[in-house]
Automatic annotation (TrEMBL):
InterPro entries: Diguanylate_Cyclase, GGDEF_dom, Nucleotide_cyclase, Rev_trsase/Diguanyl_cyclase. It comes from Candidatus Methylobacter oryzae. It comes from the Bacteria. Coiled coil: none annotated. Signal peptide: none annotated. SMART domains: GGDEF. This is diguanylate cyclase.
Amino acid sequence: MVNKSANLAIITNNTFEATKAINLDNYDISSALQTTLEFNELIAIFSSKISHKIPHSAYVYINKEFDLEVRSGVFTRHSCNYALKVEQQQLGELRLMRNHRFSDTDLQLLETLLCCLIYPLKNATLFHQALKMAYTDPLTQTHNRTSFNDAIKREMSLAVRNNKSLSMIFFDIDHFKSINDGHGHECGDVALKLSAKWIKENLRESDIIFRYGGEEFVILLSDTDANGAELLAERIRSSIESHTIAYGMETIKITASLGTSTLRDNDTAESFIQRADKAMYTAKNKGRNQVVAGR
């Protein structure tokens, strides 16, 4: 049975300043933590710096805001857990583990040392929140075109390096202009938000969805071959067709046309994208509400 000490670390400005004044020997910890804005690096540095004061065999850091879980070490029986918070801002949870109990003295010292971690975590949070806003489409809460331009190069490089398949789906809502013209742009926004939601419901955690522009979305599928991409595209198409949008006193059915492509040895980002885009437009020209593979 795991022995867990659950603690809530709520650090205020006053607490932080008082701790700094009393614990001058902890400045080296604070200085080391100023060198990065990456959560995993901050936790690793903190763990290393306090290991001689609070020996531990493993740590887990969870930050739900960024869907992040960082873990390292040998997981053992006893643990202490802290929910980190400053100025009403949640900064995640940190758990330390070892094979014998944490004493009250250990916990008091750890709570003092956590003051060194709080503000670097806050800075990292603000930094990643800004990045998230810069790379997120505010309407659909999907990644945006700028994010796609970065991700396509990264995913292509990873696929080549690891000798794995990479596929792409282009998705376009059929007759979207008619929705806007007939029901108004608010209804069009609802259709976009719901389409993004229904697409996400069919994706794996490793799949990435982007709003490419207007009513178009693009999905990057790591470690997915041509057949897998077609099967997923068909599942998405069927899911969209099976839903009905209730707007005001009306119900609206929407469909989508989808095109797929799979990375080839001689592909550039442009040729990889163009093949999926062309396949999507072929689906539209063939009558819409279907999937076409860009061979």
